[in-house]
Fold this sequence. Notes:
The protein is an alpha/beta fold. The chain has two domains: 129 residues, Tetrapyrrole methylase, N-terminal domain (Cobalt-precorrin-4 Transmethylase, domain 1); 114 residues, Methyltransferase, Cobalt-precorrin-4 Transmethylase, Domain 2. 20% of the residues lie in helices and 21% in strands. The chain has a five-stranded parallel β-sheet with strand order 5-4-6-3-7, sandwiched between helices. The longest helix has 12 residues. It starts with 18 loop residues before the first strand and ends in an 8-residue tail after the last strand. This is uroporphyrinogen-III C-methyltransferase. It comes from Chlamydomonas eustigma. InterPro entries: 4pyrrol_Mease (IPR000878), 4pyrrol_Methylase_sf (IPR035996), 4pyrrole_Mease_sub1 (IPR014777), 4pyrrole_Mease_sub2 (IPR014776), CobA/CysG_C (IPR006366), Siro_Cobalamin_biosynth (IPR050161). Pfam families: TP_methylase. GO terms for molecular function: uroporphyrin-III C-methyltransferase activity.
Amino acid sequence: MRGLNADRSCPVSRKNAPSWKGSVMICSASSKCWLVGGGLGPADYLTLKAVKLIQEADVLVYDDLGTQDALQLAKEDCEKFYVGKRGGRESIKQTQIDELLVQACLKGSDRSIVRLKGGDPAVYSRATSEIAALTAAGIPYEFVPGISSVLAAPLLAGFPLTDVNVGSSFAVVSGHNVEGTNWQAFSDIPTLVILMAGKNLAVIAQKMAEVHRMWTKSTPVVVIRDAGLPNQREWRSTLQNIAEETQGEQLSPCIVIIGQVAGLYC
C-alpha cells in the first residue's frame, strides 16, 4: 500500500483557519471525502454521480470490487490505493484505512478524494469508523448511494425480494458471527437476507429451521455468488438440503435468501 504523510495536523493560517459547524470543526485546508457506492462491480451498475466522481478523482481508495471496471474510469494520474478485505486473506487494518483517508484529504483543499466501496457505502461497510475519523479531523464528507446486492441479487436470480402474498417484509443480517446473533429475533419475518454467509451456511440453515415460526425444512433457499458478474452462480434448494448441495463449493462472496419468495418463478 502506498503511504501518506503521517502528519494529521490541519495547517492553519488566517486564510484557511478552521471554522465550526455545530460542534464539528471544519478544516478549510482539507479536501472533501466522497464515500461512493461501487454497486455490484460492473460499470453498468454504477450511478451517474459515481461515474462522474471516479472520473474526477485525484485519489481513489477502493475495496475488492469484483471487477476493474470502475478503476478504468479514473484518470491516468489518479492515485489508487487498494484496501479491500476478503475472508481468509491478510488485509489492511481499518484504522490504517481511516488514516489513509484523513491524510489524503489534508494534503490540500483542491483535490477530489473518493472512497469507493462495493455495493452501497453504508451497508456492512465499516463506514462509521471512516466518517468518525474524518469528522474528528474536521474533514467534510458526503455519501453517494450505490446498488446493494441485498436488493439486486434476488432480481438477478429471477425473483423479487418482496411479495404481497408470501413475503411483505424482510430482514438483513451478517452471517459472520453465527453464535453471537439472536436468530430467534427473525422468527416472524418472512424473508431473511444473509450477507457473508458462505462459511457458516450449514449452521445458519439449521438454526433457522429450528427457530422460525413460519419456516419448515422445505422452505426455499437461494445462494447467489458473484451477483451481477459474468460468473454469477446460483444454488436453489431448501433449508434441509442447502448445506449438502453446496458442500465443497466455493460460495464466497455470496448472498443467501431464505423464504417463500426464493421459490417464486423457479
